[in-house]
Amino acid sequence: MAYSLGYKKSVQRDLKQISKLEAKRILDHIEQELVNDPESNPLLKGRFAGLRRYRVGDYRVIYFLQETEIRILRIGHRRDVYKQEI
Questions:
Q1: Which of these CATH numbers, 3.30.420.40, 3.40.50.720, 3.40.50.10190, 3.30.2310.20, describes 4-77?
Q2: 2-47 pLDDT, tens per residue?
Q3: Helix, strand, or coil here: 6?
Q4: How many other CB atoms are found less than 10 A from the CB of residue 36?
Q5: What is 35-50 written as a DSSP string?
Q6: How many CB atoms lie within 10 A of CB 3?
Q7: What is the rounded CA–CA span in Å between residue 43 and residue 10?
């Protein structure tokens, strides 16, 4: 099944806090790998229940599936991304 990508506006702020090289690497991973099999990534628990995470090195991409769309909510370093509000 083909999925389309959608980004929350706050993702732009998240990417500005990351170096340009890392941001490009994360976006490349999202566009090449996450789109192909988004259902294989683990579901989160607790206050993020129902959302999924995708790991790119030390960075995490928090997203959810909405029919045929992958909606990216947050991108951040693993130590900080779960402390922020979605």
A1: 3.30.2310.20
A2: 899 999 999 999 999 999 999 999 999 999 999 999 999 999 999 9
A3: strand
A4: 11
A5: TT-GGGSPBP-GGGTT
A6: 17
A7: 21
